[in-house]
Amino acid sequence: MQVRGPIVSFSSFRGLLVAVALMAGVLFLATPNARAATVTPVGTGDSWAGVVVQFQNGHTYAFQVFYTGPTTTGINLLDILDSGLGADFTLTAPDFPPFGRFVDGIGYLTDSNSGYGGGDNWWHYWTKDAGAPAWYLGLGAEDPGATTRVIHNGDLDGWVYGSETAPSISSIPEPTAILILGTAVPMLLARRRTRR
Questions:
Q1: N or C: which end of the chain has fewer CB within 10 A?
Q2: The domain 36-172 is classified under which CATH number: 3.30.1490.20, 3.40.50.300, 3.30.2290.10, 2.170.130.30?
Q3: Quick one: which of 135, 124, 116, 126 has its CA closest to 161?
Q4: pLDDT bucket at 37, cuts 50 / 70 / 90
């Protein structure tokens, strides 16, 4: 009786495990929580910030907004979404000098909320600086609004209608992390095929 060797060699099995681990990492980074299946990139530039929009019905969307320069403002991130997403995104933000612009309505795809409907039915502005452990809801006179908030690379802004609860998404992966992991898996698989 002839004894055959293992069907799968240890080195190919190890390569397969590495590929699976990298794929799991990509899925983990690209899915900050179950409600946001994808992060939509918008705009151009050498810096980015995250914007989370959560409608009253619970539908939540995450965006990676790219801009040029070391800083921008919270309202500028919404303007980039408004111009970059075309008819899919609508923003109603009239100017009230000397206070700045007031976000009255946001719509994306089939979801839309606008106006003040009493109680918590208005757009709450949440902020989260890069590396901060939690969201911050500023409601005091000293807190910056979207017009005056200075955004730095990697910061997050959140807009929640109808609730004073923080956005359900608390992180958005850096663009380079997804790019590196996303390109590593196909390279490993191609390398595995060429060794055969």
A1: N
A2: 2.170.130.30
A3: 124
A4: low
Q: Whole-angstrom Cα distance, residue 60 to residue 131?
A: 22
Q: Cα(108)–Cα(16) distance, rounded to whole angstroms?
A: 40
pTM score? 0.72
Tell me what pLDDT residue 175 has. Answer: 86
pLDDT computed for residue 26 by the predictor: 40
Classify residue 158 as exposed, middle or buried by CB count within 10 Å of its CB (0-12, 13-18, 19+): buried
The encoded tokens of residue 62 equal: 């995450």
Q: How far is CA 18 from CA 41, 50, 173, 183, in A?
A: 28, 30, 21, 13
